[in-house]
Design brief:
about 20% strand; RNA_MeTrfase_FtsJ_dom; 7-stranded mixed β-sheet; alpha/beta; SAM-dependent_MTases_sf; single chain; Rossmann fold; about 230 residues; rRNA processing
C-alpha cells in the first residue's frame, strides 16, 4: 500500500491560547498528518485502518470466510478494514469498553474481554473458534516510559491469553506493543504456541511513536501450552 503524498505547508491552529501545549501539539499533528487526511477522504473511521492493511499486505492476515475478533476496536478502523477485505463470507466480532457506531456485517459488543461475561459474549457471537485475534489496545500513558511499557505489556499478555483460548489451530494473533518489543517471557510463550512470531512497524505508524506490532501466525492448537488433551 502506497503512503499518502504530503502536500502543502504545515497548518497551525489559530485558537491555541485556550489549549494546553500538549493539546496544541496533538491537534496540529492531527491536522497535518497525511494519513489522517487520507483516512477521512477514503471514509475510514481512523488512520489505524492503514496500519492493519499494511500489516495484511506484508503478512497475509485476512482470508475469505474467517472468524475474526477485534479487541479494543473503537472507533473501528481495524474492524472496518477487515470487513472490507474479507467481505460477507466471514464473521467479525468487535469488542470495546467504549460504545462503537454500528457497522454492516459486524457484531459489535460493549464489554471487557478479560471478564468471563465478555469472553462468553464473543464466543457466542463467533459461533465457533476464531481464525484471527486483533488487538490495537493501548492504555492511557503517563509519560513514564517504564510504567507505560508495563501497562501495554499487561494488555498484550491478557490479549495473548484470550487468543490462546479462542483461536482455532493455525490461527493468528496481532497485537500492539511499545518500544522494547515483546517481553522475553511472553515472546517465549508466543514462539511456543505459534509457528512464526515477528515484530513489525508499518509505514503508517508515526516515526516518533514507540508503537510496533507483534504478529504471531500458525497457532499450534489448544494443547500448545501443555494442556492435557484428555482433560475437560
Amino acid at each position: 500500500m502506497k503512503p499518502p503524498v504530503e502536500r502543502g505547508l504545515t497548518t497551525r491552529l489559530r485558537t491555541a491560547k485556550s489549549r494546553s501545549t500538549s493539546s496544541q501539539r496533538w491537534l496540529e499533528r492531527q491536522i497535518n498528518d497525511p494519513y489522517v487526511r487520507a483516512a477521512k477522504a477514503a471514509g475510514w473511521r481512523s488512520r489505524a485502518a492503514f496500519k492493519i492493511l499494511e500489516l495484511d499486505e506484508r503478512f497475509k492476515l485476512f482470508k475469505p470466510g474467517q472468524r475474526i475478533v477485534d479487541l479494543g476496536a473503537a472507533p473501528g478502523g481495524w474492524t472496518q478494514a477487515a470487513s472490507k477485505v474479507i467481505g460477507d463470507r466471514g464473521r467479525i466480532v468487535a469488542l470495546d469498553l467504549l460504545p462503537m457506531e454500528p457497522m454492516a456485517g459486524v457484531t459489535i459488543l460493549q464489554g471487557d474481554f478479560s471478564e468471563q461475561a465478555g469472553e462468553d459474549a464473543v464466543l457466542e457471537a463467533l459461533a465457533g473458534p476464531a481464525d484471527l485475534v486483533l488487538s490495537d489496545m493501548a492504555p492511557n500513558t503517563i509519560g513514564h516510559n517504564a510504567t507505560d511499557h508495563l501497562r501495554i505489556m499487561a494488555l498484550v499478555e491478557l490479549a495473548a491469553d484470550f487468543a490462546r483460548r479462542v483461536l482455532a489451530p493455525d490461527g493468528a494473533f496481532v497485537a500492539k506493543v511499545f518500544q522494547g518489543g515483546t517481553e522475553r517471557t511472553l515472546l517465549a510463550d508466543l514462539k511456543r504456541d505459534y509457528a512464526q512470531v515477528r515484530h513489525a512497524k508499518p509505514p503508517s505508524s508515526r516515526k516518533d511513536s514507540a508503537e510496533a506490532f507483534v504478529v504471531a501466525q500458525g497457532f499450534r492448537g489448544n494443547n500448545a501450552a501443555g494442556r492435557d488433551p484428555e482433560a475437560g
